[in-house]
Amino acid sequence: METQDTLPPIQRTQLFKAPIQKVWTAIATAEGLNAWFMPNDFEPVVGHAFKIDAGPFGMQPCLVKEIEVQRRIVFEWGTEWTITIELEDKGDNQTSCTLTHSGWRVDGMTEFNMPHSLVRDTMDKGWVGIVAKLGSYVEA
Q: Which one of 24, 26, 56, 60 has the lowest number of neighbouring Cβ atoms within 10 Å?
């Protein structure tokens, strides 16, 4: 939900030539997330606190907020961001995947003292490659 003090969420949707179960495993397991996103200790359990290794930005705290098996995962990233990944079975071994990165504030600053407006633009471009990497992983 956008208000005057928020920036629009980043949203990427891609159709993968892969069955939904394979895509689900790629987004709902630590091993799967490690293959296309970042090293982590994720578990698909609501309330599970986990960390992702964001390289130069260090270990980032996350918290699983929602799990809807083979449909949706929502987790908090840090103190302000929310990552939502939604899957839709399109039949014929095809799965639509929508990733949404929300929580961007107009006046927001990261813990590294970088304005959300700047980081959002960088992450917007970054998610293009990350979602493509997910596609390559599940279509292999």
A: 56
- 10: its two tokens: 């980043």
Contacts of 65 (CB under 8 A, 6+ apart): 46, 74, 75, 76, 82
Class of 10-139 in CATH: alpha beta
Annotated domain spans of the chain: 10-139
The number of beta carbons lying within 10 Å of the beta carbon of residue 37 is 20
Judge whether 64 and 75 are in contact, CB under 8 Å: yes
Query: Which residues of the chain have a pLDDT value below 50?
Result: none
Contacts of 59 (CB under 8 A, 6+ apart): 51, 52, 53
Measuring CA to CA, how many Å separate 115 from each of 11, 35, 105, 110, 125? 19, 29, 9, 6, 16
Tokens of 15: 């159709």
pLDDT attached to residue 4: 73
Strands 94-102 and 49-53: unpaired
pTM score above 0.70? yes
Angle, helices 20-27 vs 116-139, to 10°: value is 130
